[in-house]
Amino acid sequence: MQWETVIGLEVHAQLSTESKIFSGASTAFGAAPNAEACAVDLALPGVLPVLNRGAVERAIRFGLAVGAKVNSPSIFARKNYFYPDLPKGYQISQYELPVVEGGHIQLQIVQDGKEQEKIVRLVRAHLEEDAGKSLHEDFHGMSGIDLNRAGTPLLEIVSEPDMRSSVEAVAYAKTLHTLVRWIGICDGNMQEGSFRCDANVSVRLRGSDKLGTRCEIKNLNSFRFLEKAIDYEARRQIEILEDGGSIQQQTRLFDPEKGETRAMRSKEDAQDYRYFPDPDLLPLEISGNWIEEVKKGLPELPQQMRTRLEHDYGLSMYDALLLTADRDISEYYEAVVGKLPSDPKLCANWVMGEVSAYLNNEGRSFDVCPLSPAQLAQLLLRIKDGTISGKIAKDVFRQMWAQADAESISWKNREGVDEGLADRIIDSQGLRQISDSSALENLVYEVLAANPKSVEEFKAGKEKAFNALVGQVMKAARGKANPAQVNEILRKKLTE
Amino acid sequence: MSLSLDDVKRVANLARIEISEDEARKALIQLSGIFDLIEQMQAVDTSAITPMSHAQDVMQRLRADAVTEIDQRELFQSVAPQVEAGLYLVPKVIE
Amino acid sequence: MLNASLKQLSAMLAARKISSVELTSEFLKRSRALNPEYNAFITLDERTSLAQAQAADILIGSGRGQPLTGIPIAQKDIFCTKGWLTTCGSKMLSNFISPYDAHVIGRFNAVGAVNIGKTNMDEFAMGSSNETSFYGPVKNPWDTAAVPGGSSGGSACAVAARMAPAATGTDTGGSIRQPAALCGISGLKPTYGLVSRYGMVAFASSLDQGGPMAKSAEDLALMLNVMAGFDARDSTSLEREPEDYTRDLEKPLDGLRIGLPKEYFVKEIDEDVARAVEAAIGQYRKLGAETVEVSLPNTKLSVPVYYVLAPAEASSNLSRFDGVRYGYRAPDYLDLNDMYRKTRAQGFGSEVKRRILIGTYVLSHGYYDAYYIQAQKLRRLMAQDFAEAFKQCDVIMGPTSPTVAFDLGERSSDPVQMYLSDAYTIAVNLAGLPAMSIPVGFGHKNRPVGLHIIGNYFAEAQMLNVAHQYQLESDWHTRMPKE
User: Fold this and answer.
1) Which end of chain B is more exposed for a tag (fewer CB within 10 A), N or C?
2) Chain C contacts of A275, Cβ < 8 Å?
3) How many domains, chain A?
4) pTM for the whole structure
5) What is the distance between the alpha carbons of residues A252 and C89, in angstroms, rounded to a whole number?
6) Cβ-defined contact of A274 to C93 (cutoff 8 Å)
7) What is the pLDDT of residues C277-312, one digit of tens each?
8) Domains of chain C (ranges, CATH numbers)
9) Would you say residue B83 lies in a domain?
10) Is residue C76 flagged as an active site residue?
């Protein structure tokens, strides 16, 4: 039987505000336990929530970026359940009227060299508060509760069940991850839990238009876990169905060590969240003016930029995807192209190649790349105008990197600084290619005189001997000769 | 609509209130009386009316995104039933 | 001095005829003496009160005194008060020393008023007789066999027995007005959103409103001047220009249109209450007011609507009492859920549990539309009824309670009977309107009768004027119960 996996994702993106969604406590990560849990976060008797404008603004930004409807008014509701990391005994969320409704995410999937596009529709995105954390280390058989995270603003982004494989689900999650960072609403730090996925997974016979019973896998905090959890869960469900069993709707947890999912015990009793509009919060009105203002502040979106890179710069989908993986890369790349508009492909190769590799090696981001786009552009210009070969350029790049300012300052703040670095290294070390043909001819004569055997072999028809001679000339030129030019002169001399 | 003993127990469980069989029976009688009163509401046709959640027809006011709170953990935890190492202790949480 | 108005006390303090320490000591002494019998206070803390009085004397001495500086005020134990036990009348909070001040407390502190103690109340403000308090019932000082009303029964008793010159209360369905009526004092529930709810332990958030309780309308106005005001920490607090609620007190009532809802004057009202209320309305006619019959056709539904909405909100508001971060935790339990269930079973009294069960039920899956949404729709109908009525009149009058104070224990076993006694006051909370109760005589067994005055939104100054003009012509508000 042919099974099809159906996946919908609920992503919790922690919004990058300074303060919490309903209180003035800090959202900074890593504070001492409960040091950032204020009276409101602790749900002391009598405290009340007041909504953070910054959280709403970020939700609007998201709504605009995915082509969704921004609802006005939207309503905050209470989701009632008991859990020690939920101080009020309810979570303030949105239920019937979320702030963002509809929209879609466009995916580019490059798999096994094949490029594929897909649209995933969004159901909604709503604002809500995060819960605290239960620490399960043993405190005399008890758990410890840290409420620092309680009240951190989240945007829960709910997709339609439009994905059909873990690859698609991961592509969706990655695209969303890029987008939320791109528009500056979430730092995307998955280790710290700033971007968490819940996957709703069901299976059905291919061709069926009815959805199977789904299981929700909670709190997947890496793309790899997302992929593994979905694959495991789909297999588990298929096995049950093939054995004639039926799927029980469940909330499950993924165990990364075992690579398995298991039912959550705390969710065993049927939930009845008793949603109702929060009487402490009034309807949220978002004016057209506000939406316009937010729209003006939005950057070019990754999807628009990808299309532009493919069309205007002639880059492949793959290149365009990599260069729009985050805004730091894309901004850097655009700045390099700005200085060398004649060869966006060369710029792309170097940005994704050397620059990316060096940065990775040092664990730094493009934003604080020690080489400014202008410095890199000059180096690339010297490749293009034949001053140096690509091979020499790599050596120059290495030296530039070593000499450049290694302090973590954004390149944007280093405009005009030492833009002649590449030329200085090339000149001081005499790395310019020998393009003067008389000089090259002299070198060729010398090599021919010193290698009579190779000359004879060539004349006897051995093409290999020619390559050996080229190599000798390049060696004599200490790599600074243009190989094409060397070829040409050598062949001319040998056939004279 | 009449309330059953199971309803009382289900609701008590949702509300995390321990209730004995005897208490549940007593509660059922009292709650049934109250719900008889509440049922009067059903006589009114309200299909054309918008529900009223708030006493005033005003919109949510927004706070500027700024940190205004300081660490008062010691004070707040001085009234806690059980704390250790800055954490609130509870019976083991099972996920 | 025990019967002096706030204005008189303020003048005495300003003229240094008496110090705040002397005044506070006097009331503390009286409170200490009477409390064992009346049980009006849960907490009296002489040291803190006197320290505040001392500070107030310095403030007055330096010429920075305000109308309530140095005057002892009894605070309902629902207002979080930093460093004070704040119990809300519950075992659940019987060990809760509040780490912060409610907005209302902060405002009294800011003007240098003295907190004379925390008053007893129905547990979590759920009750109309003060019998649901973990700290035992409050007695009605006019007749200790009678209840003082609730939930602000301790505050009402404290003012009536002259244990404090004035007090704060909160009103979700009549909890200021009904005990004011039953204890023969004046009480005002402001327009929803006028007094910040920050730091006021929540019962039903969309209905709760703090307000003053005092001997007279003039005192209420001075109290409200301190209590009302915008608070950025409460999303439902209204941003309005500050008002002086004493400004219209002296206005004559010529041409005042008093609406008398035909639904309020029915056979359910005890004859003694009806007589006193009608006499008061007669007095208003003499003062130049005219009366018009109005209709509030959905009045009958206010009790059922209220007993859906208030418990629903309460069931959620009271979920935070889980034995984790503060308050009571059951001593023995098997696991986490058992800890929750035992803590809440032992920490809450039976009325609170009953309302949590009702609220949980009406919000639960499958019942939400039939109960909660239907109640919210009827709530709008009731607000519309008032809007219609106010097209024909300036204020609405009727009895605050259909009966005088009932006996302790008389209704405690019959919740429905207890709930029905709040019929007149509840509709006002549902609409969010301001309303007050003033004493207008005595009925059965010489127990006080209250007149209910309902105003339009933000009409507090006008209502206070209406009440004050009556009190200039009557002395019910100056009468003191015998000790």
Assistant:
1) N
2) 363, 368
3) 3
4) 0.93
5) 42
6) no
7) 999 999 999 999 999 999 999 999 999 999 999 999
8) 6-250 (3.90.1300.10)
9) no
10) yes
